[in-house]
Give the backbone structure.
Amino acid sequence: MKSRSLLADIGKSFLIALWFIVLLFPLMVMKVNVSKGVAQVQFRWNMLPLVGIGAFVLSLLWRLALEWNERRSNTNRAGGSLAKIGSLTSQYLSITGVRRGALIILLAFAIAYPFLFGMYHTNIMITAFIYIILALGLNIVVGLGGLLNLGYAAFFGVGAYTYGLLWKYVGQSFIAAGIDPGWLFWISLPLAGIIATLFGILLSLPVLRLRGDYLAIITLAFGEIFRMVMQNSGDLTGGATGISLIPRPWLFNMKLTPQKAATYIYFIAIVLVAITIFVVRRIEDSKVGRALEAMREDEIACQAMGINLVKNKLITFALGAFWAGIAGVVMAAQTTYINPDSFTLWESIIILMAVVIGGTGSIPGAIGGAILLKLLPEYFRALAQYRMLIYGIAMILVIIFKPDGLIPRKRKQYTFSEKELAK
Amino acid sequence: MEYFLKLFLSGTAKGSIYALIALGYTMVYGIIQLINFAHGEIYMIGGFTALILGGFFFSNGMPVWLVLLLSVLLSILYAAAFGYTIEKIAYRPLRGKPRLSALISAIGVSIVLQNFVLLAQTEKFMPFPSYLPEFSWLQPYKEYINSTQLIILGVTAVIMVFLTFLIKFTRTGKAMRATAQDMHMAQLVGVDVNQVISVTFIIGSSLAAIGGVLICSYMGQINYYIGFVAGIKAFVAAVLGGIGSIPGAVLGSFILGWTESLGTGYISSDYEDAFAFVILIVILLIKPDGILGRTQRQKV
């Protein structure tokens, strides 16, 4: 690999900046405004230097990053200071005492959180927890199974609608019988998981034969069909207006203030997150998990090793859908209102972004990604309108420069010493 | 019968619209097996460029035919430049990596472009002026077909013939076919694969821009989101016809257009977008290679 001089890089970046100025000129500098059928164009010349300088700096960084990327893959060394910090942390975390201590501190903080920060922040945290469950579920499909699911929000919707529809059709008779309708939450929770799983199996049946990209597009189709059906069957599901006044979960017939209810749902969510993490971890280490990983790496080789691909794909979709269903019920209980707009393709894509940016196949990655994507826009309101733009750019950058995500999955390595071998 | 004929003709017009976009999709997929989600966005950007530049030229008092010519040419140039740039930035570094990576990158590009136009221009629907000529001799039949539809139909036919010719009989086309068959072998026999892929993206994006201008003229409006749905539908059309096949893309587009049109006319207009997805699911179940596609064996 020949070394390039920085000067040549700067020259190239200058040319690229020129290219981008020309390329983005009509869209960035000119702004169209149509009034009375006539298009008026105004010029925003202040954008011009912005585009130029931005493109120059970014392209310089880009070239350096690409070079760094190449060098890294060539020499395969541990990487920069960030990686060192990462490996140091994981080293410390592998000491049982430190790990337990960290976990206890984290847990204590999580328990104290709703009492420390009030309802607004508690609600934001619940949303983040819901996304953690979703990201972990999708991580089974995308990370473990290597199947791209672009209709994941539909399963989320199946969960939410299970609770919503139960409330809509059974709720009144519950009230008439003198039973708190909040019970429906506890009924819906397992039910939604099961129904979503069934939907997952149903969906995976036709797609079993398909390759990766067809699979992505067909799951997208399923997701959109789900949304359209929910939107257009107004009598049955409330149509575009959705279902409102969904009861909060039952807690010993207590009438909870919104503040207390939020705290209560917060704890339900946190328990569910803990269960999800536990189960997903066990899945990863199980026979099924290994088979899924093998399938992701190479379908044909996997089949040759005697693994039943059809069965495994079914399992992948079913497992992924289950958690989305659970998350959906929590979401319906938190917002007390659902409509089809919450389950669009963009929802699926945001969950996918959380998984990809966090680290495909990595449990801490999925958790980190979900927290990052859900909390950042809440606390940086000024950037809210740039949210999708930033996420999109971040996803492209991660895929190109750090395909394993920000918190990469740790590959299991089996080492044995010669001594053991001699035994 | 007259109702049917009307629906059939409006389906034909719809089909030729999808065909313009599907041709670019199918070309890119045929060569690098990537669902270029950003293709629909290129089409949208083509339309927007024409709207902006056309508006600028028109308000400066240029004659309509010159406005049309310049805005179409420039939007083709710009769309081609966008396609070229996107391929270089977002897809080329991922060549040779798992195919899912490029697909995710394509989704990212699509989101970035949509939001870029949303932020840099507007989130509202913009009325799109039509600079296309009106044929007076078509006046008696305007209930069935209007001039814009006829122009779209004609342009689609010309482009299909042009592409078939390009791929079958030119050197570039030969290189494209070689690259599509086996990238490494093509490289070994001296095909500049990077260049071929760039050319493919440039051609595909140019077609998308032509589609963008024509379709926006036909619909009379544009916003940042039009590309995504159109792109997905065009992809469905391409899959239906057999992805990678030029006549297949056109055939698939017409079938999709007719189905949508007849479906909304006879069944329900609530589910207009769902027909495409149902077709997609059915075709992938019955014949995943499409109507005119060749069966491909998966290789290790």
